[in-house]
Design brief:
By secondary structure, the protein is an all-alpha fold. The protein is built from two helices and no strands. The protein has a domain of about 30 residues. The longest helix has 25 residues. Keywords: Signal.
Length: about 70
């Protein structure tokens, strides 16, 4: 019987808690909006940073059209 009570208490505890125990954003709506904007800007610039690290943002020196190398 004790085992079932512990299972029910654990299930109620897990079902009632949604998300993290400590919230990542503030409860104040104005502050939370500012934090969400900062987070989305950080994620948006992540791709640019990744391309800069791997030197993918360099200009291409290839010709826009294919040539066969023959002298005309």
């Amino acid at each position: 019987m004790r085992k079932w009570i512990l299972i029910v208490v654990a299930a109620c505890g897990l079902a009632s808690s949604t998300g993290c125990l400590l919230p990542i954003y503030s409860a104040d709506p104005a502050r939370r909006a500012q934090q969400l904007i900062y987070t989305s800007e950080d994620l948006r610039t992540f791709l640019d940073e990744w391309e800069r690290i791997w030197f993918l943002d360099q200009p291409s020196h290839m010709k826009p059209y294919r040539t066969n190398g023959l002298v005309i």
